[in-house]
Structures are given as C-alpha cells and as structure tokens.
Amino acid sequence: VERENVQKRTFTRWINLHLGKRKPPLKVKDLFIDIQDGKILMALLEVLSGQKLMHEYKSSTHRIFRLNNIAKALKFLEDSNVKLVSIDAAEIADGNSSLVLGLIWNIILFFQIKELTGNLNRNSSSSSLSSGPSGPESDTSHPNTPSVERNMSITVKDQRKAIRALLIWVQRKTRKYGVAVQDFASSWRSGLAFLAIIKAIDSTLVDMKQALEKSARENLEDAFSIAQNKLGVPRLLEPEDIMVESPDEQSIVTYVAQFLEHFPELEGEDFTDPDKELPIESTYVHIKDTPLEKEGKILILSESEENMYTVNHERSHPAPPKVHIHDTTE
Description:
The chain is mainly alpha-helical. The protein has a single domain (1-122, 152-267), classed as Orthogonal Bundle (Actin-binding Protein, T-fimbrin, domain 1). The chain contains 14 helices and 4 strands. It has helices spanning 2-19, 31-34, 39-49, 63-79, 89-93, 97-112, 114-123, 147-174, 192-201, 208-211, 216-231, 239-242, 249-262, 268-271, and strands spanning 284-287, 298-302, 308-311, 323-324. Strand 2 and strand 3 (308-311) form a beta hairpin. Helix 1 packs across helix 6 (97-112) and helix 7 (114-123) crosses helix 8 (147-174). The longest helix is centred in the middle third of the chain and has 28 residues, at 147-174. The radius of gyration is 22 Å and the shape is elongated. Mean pLDDT is 76; it is low at 124-156, 269-299 and 301-305.
C-alpha cells in the first residue's frame, strides 16, 4: 500500500509537470479518479507526443463515452508501439489503482526515457545497450513485423535498457565522491546519491563531508530542495518516500531521469562506452572511530582527508587499522 501511495504521489507530480504546459493548463488532484473519463490521459499524451488528441475527447458522465475516450488513448499508445499488458479501458474507467499506475509507468518509461535512449544511440555503439535486461516482457518485436515497425519496436525494447544505462550514468557521477549506487532502491536511502549527482552538476552546491555528518532525512531534504531551487529539477519525491525499507524503484528512476533531461550535456562523456569502468585511484585509508548511534555509517578518510568513502561495518568484528580500496567491481 505504501509503495502504491508513493507511486501515486510521484506520478501525479510528473503528470502535472507536463499538464502545466498546456493552454489552458490542467491539474490532477486524485489520479485514480481524475483519469476515469479519459481527459487527463488524452491531454497528457497530447503534450508528450506533440500530436492532437483532445479533438476526439467527448465530455460525458455516461460510461460508454468515458470508455471510448480511454480506448482512443490506449489505441494511440499501441500505435506508438507502447506495449500494454492486461490494461484495458474498463479497468482505467473503474480507477483500478495498480493498472492505472502500470499505465502511467509505461507512459513515463516510453516518453521520459525516450530522449535518453536517443542520446545513448547517438553517443554509444549498439553493443553498449546490450547490458540491460532482456526477455519476453521487454521484447515487443515479432518476426513477421515489417522492418520499419520492427525497428520501432526494438526502440521500445531499448527503453528498458536505458534504465540500465541510467544506472551506469549515476554510478559514474557518484563514485568520484565515494558513493556506491547499486540499484534504484536502497542505495538512495541515505540521500548521499542524490547529493553526489547534484555535486557532479555543480560542485559548489554540495559539501559531501558535511553531508556525511547529517541524517538521511536532512540529506534527502537538502538534495530535493537544492535540485529544485538551484538546478530547476522538479521535486517529485519527499524524504518520507525514500526513508523506507524498500524505496520504490519506479519513482526514483522517474525522478533521477529529470537530471538528465535538464542537463543533457552531462551524458556524452559518460555514455561513450558504458561497459568501460572508470578507474578509482587505489589508496590506503583509515577507519575513523564512530559513535554507536551511528554504527551504520562508518566514515573512511584517506590520509590526506581529500577522499571519503562510506561502508557498512559489522561491529561484531574489530575494525581493521587500514582498508585498501581496489580498482575492481567488488
């Protein structure tokens, strides 16, 4: 339920960002209710695609007209090669929460990550996209599909691979500040990953040494506020959304992708060869004594105290006097 609530809030903010561009603008108050007549859905797709859909919208309280509006929107998505599984007009008209969120996620995945994928295709070889997940659920191509349509379907398949590429980009941006990002879930709970991305964009906005002394809530609040006020990256998340055992991956991907959308010039250097690891300079570092109340956050400083790393340390074992940081994926 909590994951659904987080997605609902995040997706609603994302939708309103785009609906605010309309003249006149529209705004979603309750996603599960407002989507039921098809107007919000058609207006959103119109903004995202640049194509006209609203001229086909019929305002009515009758269910048949609502179903017809939604069906037209879903047909537009299918014609755009957005694969929709088990999503029909009736479920959306009834406000089925899981299917509404699934529909919006598919729209975000296709339209939000589309530009990123296009840049990846331009800035990297085709083999560099092969590192992402693949399988029946992500492959919309068919052997009997005409070549042009098949190519479009492969592009849709690449949207999922772009998520993997987005993770690689994040890792390259954050590792220089000693922040290890392994996924789009628990790696973000401390707030340090968000701050490291901001620092990679503008190093004057974040002091990572100070951030290591702050709580997760403080870091998350700082990151979301700085990103919005200083970088113009819309605030789609709240600290409470991330400070849970398993943060919602789709919500974090949606938010992190905003940084690439606002600062596309940052990606060229990182995506020239996503399979190539950037070197980390090997150095001997000391483990600093840490209070018991902060046992989950161990601060490691190099002898020059210029580079810092955070690691988890089991207190049942004595802290080693020195730790060697190797240039390996482990």
